[in-house]
Amino acid sequence: MTRTLWDSSVGKKTIMAVSGLIMLGYLVVHMLGNLKIFFGPDEFNHYAHWLRTIGEPFLHYEWALWIIRVVLVAAVVLHAVCAYQLSRRDLRARPTAYVHRKARSSYATRTMRYGGIILALFIVWHILDLTTGTVHTGGFQSGHPYQNVLDTFSTWYGNVIYIVAVIAVGLHVQHGFWSAAQTLGVGSATRDRVLKSLANVLAVVLTAGFVSVPVAVMTGVVS
Amino acid sequence: MKLTLRVWRQQNAEAPGAMATYEVDGISQDMSFLEMLDTLNEELILSGDEPVAFDHDCREGICGACSLVINGDAHGPERTTTCQLHMRSFDDGDTIDIEPWRASAFPVVKDLVVDRSSFDRIIQAGGYISAPTGTAPDAHATPVPKPDADSAFEHAECIGCGACVAACPNGSAMLFTSAKVNHLGVLPQGAPERETRVLDMVATMDDEGFGGCTLTGECATACPKGIPLPSITAMNKEWLRATRKVHR
User: Fold this and answer.
1) What percent of chain A has pLDDT over 90?
2) Which of B102, B237, B248 lies at the smallest CB-CB distance from A96?
3) What number does CATH give the domain A2-94+105-218?
4) Which chain B residues have a beta carbon less than 8 Å from that of A12?
5) Per its Swiss-Prot or TrEMBL entry, what cofactor is needed (chain B) (predicted)?
6) Contact A94/B211, CB-based, under 8 Å?
7) What share of residues in chain B are helix, strand, coil (percent, to 5)?
8) What is the ipTM for the molecules in this complex?
């Protein structure tokens, strides 16, 4: 069955749908966790520490976090590899472009590939900035995420990179969530309006939730 | 009507092609698009030039032979086949771009004619039933629920013209394949091959070099027979079901 999935364009789309939904689920939780920044440094930092203690004493310190990280890396890699291979197939299938060009499909649909590349680059920067602190400006302090977030959103480029990436997430989710439903065969003519609305709501809520943090730092609501 | 036509001319599969510009005059609004091309070809023949090659057969919108991407739209601006498109959909003095279906699985044979035998090979992979169904009266011996019969009929409307592939930015044949899979899959007569049909037809579709589906919806917009986009969703569901059931 694994061979069948990997050998078929429909199978690769299934892998993309499932890995995409895993990442989407993570994003919703991540966004909600970020909003804790509005309750002050103590609660935010305590939440960040709690993330490392999930599952104790059954799990060792940080084990749950590492399990989540492994699942996410697997999802990102599978999603990206399938996207690359399917894109190659799609481009090969239309070797000669039409002379008379027309703007086709929605903006979100047309920008899925660029959006995916933007997001992949963003994830690398985001981890180096706020997880490892390698490219962090203002002195990275492990265990003090509140201050680290303030540092990042006190630089113009930190805000620009983050907000561009968050908009890319919104667009990607808007087409991606609905597409995943079609790929997994749960869409139908009667369910279409519900699925499209759900995709729009997810896209707007994720974008607004993530963007609220840099906006709050820039406007001094969080300081 | 007087029109400027920019038409893709290509001597054969190997030769490079290019857009050529022609002026045609005296076109009636009641002419079909193909009759307009016939007029152009008569003029070309009289002046000693080679006529433009294009596919056509029944000219009543049921055979699926005609094609043409007209001003960037498969089968032109109306939701019908090119043979049923009439010149009243255009204005006097218009410039009209006419191109062949573009897909690596539909190589150009000459001018506007493409080789669509890749569709035949997808059908050969599973677009049939093996059960003897007898003569017409015997059809009533097997009861088919009305919703299933309606669904089968809706998908059976596909004439295999290839507009879905031409319109898809990925040159994907998912709408065509899903129409065939769903047409036979919902009927009791199609049940014996239900799993192998979808697996083999999708595999052949991939092998023929068609692109994948990114759900842009262009195929369903272009389809002259109105095969709906959820048809693809239904085929995805069938494919996943078959993958779970058939171990190989």
Assistant:
1) 90
2) B102
3) 1.20.1300.10
4) 212
5) [2Fe-2S] cluster; [3Fe-4S] cluster
6) yes
7) 40, 15, 45
8) 0.92
